[in-house]
Amino acid sequence: MKETVCNFGPEKRLFGILTTPDEDVRIPNAPIALILNAGIVHRVGPFRIHVDIARQLAAAGFSTLRLDLSGLGDSAPRTGSYEIEDRAVLDVGDAMDFLQRETGVDQFALLGLCSGAYNAHRVAVKDKRIVGTVFLDGIVFRTFGYYFRRFTRYFRYRFWRNAIRRRLSSSRGEVDAETSAFNESEFFDVGLNRDVVVEQLNLLMHRDVQMLFLYTDGYDDIVGRSQFQEMYGLRPDDGQLQVEYYPKSEHTFRLIENRRAACDRITDWIVGRFAKPMLIGR
């Protein structure tokens, strides 16, 4: 594989790392995956999970661009007056325009964790070049089932064991700067309307956008895979709409085994969705 530094956008103020596969494994016409910032962590992602994903996808034949949105990492702030969400849409649009000119590929998949998932959602709704999305701990709404399952967690041994471990790690100063920066970030608008999000997800379904939702036990606003259908009235399946829940994973995938499980699932999903002739060049 090859990793190349890229500058693009207005005055080439945006920065990214393009990871491309070797020619003998490259899948012709496959969508390029764009990996968006999580919180204020730059393009490597929390505990370098974005690097792991990009390199694993390259080994499977897919190109990826890990980009820093304007004002994050090595990307300069975007000039002009824009809301945070609008800047993200413009930045990702510039990245896709750049890749389309350089490679001729006009279809893309978006991957994002937390605020990255929120931004990926907004871009996918607005841009028809998006054919696939991976949302890690993205937009959620609390439901009756959430409160019930949340309450019953307090009676489980594993809940108290993990709580004690987190407290001990914090008291020993083991919370690293990267996790702290991630937790301090402004993730996304808390005033989101569930009906609007449902309408947008149905729009993506109608456009045949392939979607994978990954949730972790460390994400406080969701408890269990069943909450997805409670939130959106959409039933996950083995096709266009897939949902996974990791009951032993922290929100930032701090542990190696959790990162490996997420990377494997994402790679398998992208290969299954976009390495098939029927899905290429749709």
Automatic annotation (TrEMBL):
Any Pfam family matching the protein: Abhydrolase_1
Q: Where is the AB hydrolase-1 domain?
A: 34-194
**Annotated Gene3D superfamilies:** alpha/beta hydrolase
Keywords in alphabetical order, please.
Hydrolase
Q: Write the protein's name.
A: Alpha/beta hydrolase family protein
Among the GO molecular function terms of this UniProt record, one is: hydrolase activity
